[in-house]
Amino acid sequence: MIDFQWLIGGEAGYGIMTTGLMMSKILTRLGLSVFDYVEYPSLIRGGHNAYYVRASDEEIYSQKKTVDILVALNRDTVEKHKDELSEKGVIVYDPGFTKIEEGEFDKGKLIPVPFLEIVKKLNVDKLMVNTVAVGASLALFYPDFKVLEDLMRDTFAKKGEKVVLENINCSKEGFDFVQKNFSQKKLLSVANKTQENILISGAEAVAIGAIKAGLKFAAIYPMTPINAILTTLSSNAISYNIVVKEPEDEISGINMAIGASYAGVRSMVATSGGGFSLMVESLGLAAQTETPLVIVMGQRPGPATGFPTWTGQQDLRFVIHAAQGEFPRIIFAPGDMLEAFHQTILAFNLAEKYQVPVIVLVDKYLMEGHATVNKSQISDVKYQIEKGKNLKDEELESIADYKRYELTEDGVSKRSLPGQKGGISLTGSDEHDERGLYNEEAQNRIKMMDKRFKKMDKIIQEIPKPQPIGSGKNQIGILSFGSTKLPVLDALKELKKGGLEIDFMHIPSIEPFPENEVSSFINSHPKTLIIEGNKTGQLEGLIREKIGLTVTSNFRKYDGRPFYFEEIVEKVKSAILS
């Protein structure tokens, strides 16, 4: 079985992100299952960057704790990651600027490569030491340079033949050096399989899902970890006739999106906790005016700016209760790239069909991690755009007395758009009657509140329900939400190899909450373990609130780092033995 992890680390500015993504693409082209993740500090310039790439000939879902190939572009990388080296792991480094003391490591672990000498010989920018490192790394596990040459041509074609050749030559020098001097040091041999997968990040999956759903306006102020949504939409805006706006701030962004939606186009905003804090009053505006709106909320550890470039799941309660007053909302928490894609599409349909705000709750691990998925699961997806009760001109002609907020059996009123003949109505942020006129009478308030909440009866029938994994008859069951699903899936595989069968329920929809499914899962297991990336057990508390049940144990992590499947395995074992 092939299962190894490559890591490149160095100072920001040395192309760590580009190089790491390139390695992920190489391994994807070799037909392997790939997952990658990047760590970097909350600095404008400088600091240590690290890019993890894991690959296997079996399906994998997350990174692992140990590193098999450590590419160190400076001494700091060695210091920070030497304890992560696996038993057979090696360090690829330039002894000219990364000093390793004699006897510090077993010689079998060291692959000295003269990165700087090579770039000087080729008369290229010294920043291209990372390109040399990619070629040197490839030679450790794959004998044919062509896969990297082809990738270089695809990656740098738009920059001209000179840039293409510089990159190819640098990487080839690194490749040849390792092949010549370390031919016996190969960690493994990768068989070239047919590539069936594409590499995609969670942020790209959200953006592509939005495009598939008919997005026409996006107002996104850049903020980690949702920036790739903005860049992906921007690079495709002309092709798909989308207006992508970078507003002056988050308040402006959400109000632009509400205005665009009010005018009849599918719109969205994306932000993280700090930006969402500014948006919450306008979230209430969308709810009160019953204007469809999709918000992608990328969690990162707070409070304030907290841990801006690290991961966590600390905003679950925040999005459930954000904005003053009470109103129906939908909250999705996708657990992997495909769920992010499909739930974004569903978010647009449900927002328009039920005229409510829909929040897609994500985090850095999902947004900035890349994983291989089968291309057909995205490119071949056919979705019908559901407009709900949007009125056509001929329908308005048959309505003698149009009421924008008409009381209906399902709580959803017929909706006209500005400029439609016969569809004149008032819309404002205060409570109103059926025509939209402000009304503070008690009975009217009760009717309008009940009208809006009636929608939830139908919404709960359309949200994605949890699909338990396992026989359902095992001693212990795991529950989680969001990207924690990824390491849990790897943990289940590892536990099964050791003879332990575990059941698992990922909860993809937070509001409305799937009470029946979660209740049944907890009641059917003698022991339950809930895994979430926060300190206070927000999902655990939500379960107690909604269904009055408690789990037998929990595993919480709030250090800004993702869960590793190895630590979940250990936690499950201790939960069984306790």
Instruction: State the strand order across the main sheet.
Output: 6-5-4-1-3-2-14-7
Assess the beta-strand content as a share of residues. 15-25%
Radius of gyration: 26 Å
What's the number of structural domains?
Answer: 4
What is the helix content? 25-40%
Largest sheet: 8 strands, mixed
The DSSP helix count reads 20
Can you tell me about this structure?
- By secondary structure, this protein is α/β, with parallel strands linked by helices.
- It has 4 domains: 193 residues, Pyruvate-ferredoxin Oxidoreductase, domain 3 (3-Layer(aba) Sandwich); 180 residues, Thiamin diphosphate (ThDP)-binding fold, Pyr/PP domains (Rossmann fold), CATH 3.40.50; 70 residues, no CATH class; 102 residues, Rossmann fold, CATH 3.40.50.
- The protein is 39% helix and 18% strand.
- The chain has 20 helices and 19 strands.
- Helix 3 crosses helix 4.
- The longest helix is centred in the N-terminal third of the chain and has 21 residues.
